Amino acid sequence: MTYPERSHDGRTLVVLADDPGVEALVVDRATGEVLVLDGSVTLVNRSLSQFAESAAVYVAARRRAKYLEEDDEALEANGEEALRSTRAIDADAVADENRFWAVATEELGYGM
């Protein structure tokens, strides 16, 4: 399977998922980093394997959250645990509170 490519600031980016006109999830061919492209590029994970591991952590936490809907403290703890686990996989992925996984795990803590 051939993935479409885009160029941005001299980078060749392979498109994994695209929301036309909004953003795309891409991999930098040179570095292997997984990025969000939305006019600029923002780091998601340092590698595709770290992305897969981080996604698995998130999916597991989402499943747990379904059973915690009425327990705000448990939801918050679930989000914090997902953040810690993601940090252990790729600290750069959550180094800024506005990065993809930092936002996703925070939202888990709110039951979103």
Q: Care to describe what's here?
A:
InterPro entries: SUKH-4. Pfam families: SUKH-4. This is SUKH-4 family immunity protein. There is one protein chain. With 112 residues, this protein is an alpha+beta fold. The protein has helices spanning 48-65, 72-89, 100-109, and strands at 5-8, 11-19, 23-28, 34-37, 41-45. A 5-stranded antiparallel β-sheet has the order 1-2-3-4-5. Strand 1 and strand 2 form a beta hairpin. The chain is elongated, with a radius of gyration of 15 Å. The N and C termini lie far apart (34 Å).
Give the SSE map:
Blueprint: E1 5-8, E2 11-19, E3 23-28, E4 34-37, E5 41-45, H1 48-65, H2 72-89, H3 100-109
Helix pairs in contact: 1-2, 1-3, 2-3
Features:
SUKH-4 family immunity protein, alpha+beta, single chain, SUKH-4, 5 strands, 2 domains, 112 residues, five-stranded antiparallel sheet
State the helical fraction.
40-55%
Q: State the secondary-structure class.
A: alpha+beta
Radius of gyration: 15 Å
Helix/strand order, N-terminal first:
EEEEEHHH
Contiguous low-pLDDT stretches (5 residues minimum) are none
Which oligomeric state applies?
A: single chain
Number of domains: 2
| Major sheet characteristics | 5 strands, antiparallel
Strand segment count: 5
> Order of strands across the widest beta sheet?
1-2-3-4-5
User: What's the pLDDT, averaged over the residues?
Assistant: 93
What portion of the residues fall into strands of 2 or more residues? 25-35%
Shape: elongated
Distance between the termini: 34 Å
